[in-house]
Structure formats: structure tokens, C-alpha cells
């Protein structure tokens, strides 16, 4: 309203109408709004709204805003989209996301880039070892 304060009544009404239409479009696309959900839920909702069958997606560390449970939710979404012919190239440090069945995992730690097995990954072994014996890591703090 402040932006249209010195304008005609008609301009003020058109300004409010445009704003209302934009809000309605956002509510239609995102439901209650991304701020009504947790950070991770918001990101999953955003992914769901943007992924389309047959698409090609480059994701850089999508796990960052996601709890482990939400990462599993993302895996489920990825599976649905892969079944609908979508393709994903994902840069990640998440052992959960790297566990996607049938994923090709490439290591960029040295050149040339190499294909690696999931259980050979440092992120996998470190996470496994930590979960099996957290005290052995925490005593060094």
C-alpha cells in the first residue's frame, strides 16, 4: 500500500490485485507456504514442486538442509522421478544419498576421476565406524 499511496484509487486497486494474484499463485503451488514447514520439509516440498518426469537435474549437496529422515524422503522422491525417466547428477557427502541403489559413484579426490564402490567411500566407513563406537571418536575431543 505504501508504494501506491500517492497514486489514484484505481492504481492502488490494481496494485493490490497484482499482489493478491501473486499470493494466490504461491499458495496454489506451495500449499500453506514454505514457512509453515520445517526447513527440511520446505526443501523437500521445493524439490517435489520442481522435479518433472524426464528432467535432468544437477544437485549440489542437497542433503545440507535435510535431517537423515528427510534424506531418506529425498531418496524416495529421487526413485519416483528416476522411474519417470528423470536423471540426477548429485554432488554429496551424505552416505545416505550415496546409498541410492544402482547409483554410479564417482570420486573427484584425484585425477583421473574414478568410479568407486559405496562401501569403499571414506564417508561410508567413517559414519559406520562412528555409529558403531562413538566413544572412540569423542574421547579425542
Question: Concise description?
Answer:
The protein has 141 residues and is mainly alpha-helical. It has 6 helices and 4 strands; from the N terminus they run H-H-E-H-E-H-E-E-H-H.
Helices and strands in order:
Blueprint: H1 9-30, H2 39-50, E1 56-60, H3 68-83, E2 87-91, H4 95-98, E3 106-107, E4 114-115, H5 122-132, H6 134-138
Parallel strand pairs: 1-2
Antiparallel strand pairs: 3-4
Describe the fold and architecture.
With 141 residues, the chain is mainly α. The chain folds into 2 domains: 1-30; 38-138, no CATH class. Helices cover 50% and strands 10% of the residues. The chain has 6 helices and 4 strands; from the N terminus they run ααβαβαββαα. The chain has helices at 9-30, 39-50, 68-83, 95-98, 122-132, 134-138, and strands at residues 56-60, 87-91, 106-107, 114-115. The strands form 2 sheets. A two-stranded parallel ribbon has the order 1-2. A hairpin with a 6-residue loop joins strand 3 (106-107) and strand 4.
Number of strands: 4
**How far is it from the N-terminal to the C-terminal residue, by CA?**
55 Å
Helix/strand/pairing class, anyone?
Answer: mainly alpha
- Average pLDDT number: 86
Runs in which pLDDT lies below 50 for 5 or more consecutive residues are none
Widest sheet: strand ordering: 1-2
Number of domains: 2
Radius of gyration: 22 Å
Helix content: 40-55%
Topology pattern, helix = H, strand = E = HHEHEHEEHH
Q: How much strand?
A: 5-15%
Q: How does the overall form come out from the CA principal axes?
A: elongated
What does the largest sheet look like? Answer: 2 strands, parallel
Number of helices: 6
